[in-house]
Predict the structure of Tetratricopeptide repeat protein.
Amino acid sequence: MAPELTFSTFTLRVHERQLLADGRPVSLGARAFDVLAALVARAGELVSKSELFDLVWPGLVVEENNLQVHISTLRKRLGAELIATIPGRGYRFTARVTPRGDLAAAPPAAQATMSARSIAVLPFTNLGTDPDQEYFSDGLAEDIINKLTRSPWLHVIARNSSFAFRGRDVVVAQAGRALGARYLATGTVRRSGTTLRVSAELIDGQRQETLWAQQYDRPLADLFQIQSEISTQIVSTIEPVYLRREEYLTSQSVTPGVEHWELLMRARWHFWRSTREHVDRARDCLAQALQRKPDDPASLSLLAFTHMSRVWAGWAPNPREEIVEANRLALRAVRQDDTDSFAHFTLGTALSFTGNIPQAIAELEHALALYPQFAAAAGELGRLLAFSGRTSEAVEYVLQAIDASPHDPHLSLWVRTRAIASFVDGDYDEASRYARQAAAKRPDWFFNYYLLAACEAGAGRLDTARQSLQRAQAFGSYGMPALQAGHPFTDPALLERFAGHLREAGWPG
């Protein structure tokens, strides 16, 4: 039997392309039906206009008023309150949706969504009989859903839809198809004596692979505090694991994807390889992505980072032009969506090149207010605080980032910030220790060796300083403008101290 999705007094039979009201058929045109199926499959979530165009009119150029006509028709048939308009962004289906029927069969709208970036958090299973533990397991899953929805990268299935699987023996692949989610977060809660054990995992439902699994043991004390702490750690881990998976999948395709999301993920994959050739490939992918979605904040933001990378690495023929363009793109991303935490994070980083560190810090603080689990924003805020001489605060934010996302691609940068903070404080031995750790995590990032050379020279170990400098110079020349761009010390004396130690090691800059 084809699956049925019920809401209010309606039943949506997607395979039969039929809408029933109290058991009686409702007349809908083909496009209006497809729009409804797409909205219902993502009930409770914002579905952007561009996503609806991709799902309902794939490959076609359609005027926006076409979509508005179908939305108006649906409101007349269903009631205006079931479809909310999010001004300037898209629509949200507000009714609670309950799946019925054969979960192994996926509605077409769900299949389309499953191939994209959707993630569902299933109710965590209570392995005990204590009712307080039952409340805790439900609350934990709800916390994870609420926090994940703040990520600018994820499409999170609404709680009402995923909690329809509460208390069932669920086959993950079937649940994923029924919900239209490729990725599923699941877990269990068990009490053992005075210890509460939470197990969680992230699964690629399409490939039936576990991408990440973790166990958390906590003393049985304040359940609310435990719930908040564990949900934060789970959320902070899921996003980078998910992004690495999407980047890997697109990088393995034989031909470049034509869809915007595939191009964006391919651009991220190239960007994190960090060589000049890979950064140029990332820019090419982003140019194609922006042809498909000219105002996409994520694409604009990542393109801004490619300009910043060219300045950091000393590749830019005209660094000033690259900095201006990075700031322009970042500001455009923020204007497109001022609630996008990644856009504010990008603008904060771009502003650091202009010398406006207070405003850069304010942007990063706002990014964290929008998405408190945003580890990269915490790490970048720590970096700028270190260069501002606020080393104790810098370390706090860096530790927050590392604890939240210990496998993040930014990890080397965060450890590097601890080295910078120690350098500012004059503790060259500690600075060298962290610089070595940063270089070990990303031996292909030349600036880690420049930092190590400065720290070793500061400690009086000129032989090892020269060795580190030689490793750095093997990647290419690196002059004072690039050094200053990557090391925005607010106190000129600190920059001169850093450059002076490099000169002691033999740097000609």
